[in-house]
Amino acid sequence: MLYAELHRLYHLPLFDLLKQAREVHEAHWPENEVQLCTLLSIKTGGCSEDCGYCAQSARYDTGLTVERLMPCHEVMDRARAAAASGSTRFCMGAAWRGVRGGTDRFEQVLEIVRQVSSLGMEVCTTLGELGPEEARQLKAAGVTAYNHNIDTSREHYPNVVTSHTYDDRLRTIKNVQDAGMSVCCGGILGLGETIEDRLKMLEVLAGFNPPPESVPINSLMPMPGTPMAGHSQVDVFDLVRLIAVARIALPRAKVRLSAGRTALSREAQALCFFAGANSIFYGDKLLTAPNPEKNEDVQLLRTLGLTPQEPNRDLMAPATEAGKPRGPLAACAVSEA
Asked: Which of 260, 201, 254 is nearest to 236 (CA)?
């Protein structure tokens, strides 16, 4: 879907936009289900990148305690607890620029993935940049989806991160797709971007071939010590509008209501679900930030008549779409030429 159409949709009267988004949602997701995902930081802090929103960057004094890669048995304890509480996807994040095959830490991650995969949940990892071989090894170990957000538009990206480029992000996504893994890719609202930047981000996501399997929509949680600590909270209606447009532009993707839910009322979250969100992070902590308590989420879903989605361990990457260039647009291929 091109920018002009995304712009037209976003600026519809709110109820007209919600009506269209709801029709698309019910056509593709009629079961009233919500995917419950648990996110665990398996290696925290000390990252060499300079992402302006992230408390895990070693470049900022955020008071975060740096923690080395968790041992496999500790990760398994957390994964079993997540499965027992109803999570269907276990997501593991590590604060690295990227991983390299043949290193001890990557071999440790592969073993952790193999063990977690045996529990029957979907397995997602976010480890930074991946090369083609690392992506293939993660797929073979049992990763069903790889998260690598593009955060914002290409134009605004240098205002957020300078230690890597937008094309670096797209290159990793291409390697993930070529390895046969599903892509989990979205963005963050509240980085100082404009509405146009948000819609350009969606244009990029809608241009992926195959499209993302899941699209996290995060609202910035300003972290003390980071360059974006003083940014203001995202307007609820801006969030709802973007979720609705994402649902229309990416009808088969799970749209994940991600970071920032602690700032949303129950009514605001309900409106986000109505607009097309059908996935949340479930558990009282994200990588380093708080999240709503599990019992609060259970109560809210029950009130709304929503049920947890069953895990799909046979999850396949979405099919490619005929007539479109394979990969995350042509930009990545151009940068590799």
From this structure: 260
